[in-house]
Amino acid sequence: MLDKNGIAKRIAREVRDGYYVNLGIGIPTLVANYIPEGMNVVLQSENGLLGIGPFPFEGDENPDLINAGKQTITTTPGSSFFDSAMSFGMIRAGKVDLTILGAMEVSENGDIANWKIPGKMVKGMGGAMDLVASAKNIVVAMQHVNKAGESKLLPQCSLPLTGVGCVKKIVTELAVLDVLPEGGFKLLERAPGVSVETIQQATAGKLLIEGDIPEMNLD
User: Looking at residues 117-139, what average pLDDT do you find?
Assistant: First the structure.
């Protein structure tokens, strides 16, 4: 199985040259560390920054330079700072090519629940609703099962939805899956050492398996 950095490293392979990419809170922020060298990618943070770089080394942190998750970050040459109104103007105008988000649940129809668990305190939805409504492509980085071992890839989400029919691809510690337009998860790759049977057992939603499923290439 993959750890969080392994998930982020695999998702970085979905980024293309020239993309503007928004990284959500949690595992998605780690993707900044794995953008291929020489690729022209601009990472956007909804609190008002274009040009996020890798996380700083210990001792090099600037407490005034943070991402939307309040983590200290670095910037790339040519980075730009602006207010959140302009940032959300970019998002709502469809200027973001790819959004990478964490999730609590994803349904086989591509619905995503990633902001609230009933009965638990939450500060608010943040920019998640704008991102899922406006991004051209949404990839989810998540754990395949919850702490109780229950699947988070479901026929229908049980938690309050953030967006409907918007997720295109999911990367977990077990697998890479496409969300099919007609509904269902299509298994594309399995994590090193993980069997197809293990993925089947961990997936509550409809799972399509065609032919031999290759292991992820993380090099």
Answer: 80
Which domains occur in the chain, in start order? 4-208 (3.40.1080.10)
* CB-based contact 1:166 (threshold 8 Å): no
DSSP track, 134-164? H-S-EEEE--SB-TTS-BSEESS--SPPSBS
Least confident of 22-26, 96-100, 118-122, 191-195: 118-122
Quote the tokens at residue 127.
């920019």
Q: What share of the chain is helix, strand, coil (3-state, %, to 5)?
A: 20, 25, 55
Q: To the nearest whole percent, how much of the chain has pLDDT over 70?
A: 98
Other CB atoms within a 10 A radius of the CB of residue 54 amount to 14
Q: Is the pTM of this model over 0.70?
A: yes
d(CA 31, CA 94) in angstroms, rounded, equals 21
Residues labelled as active-site residues: 46
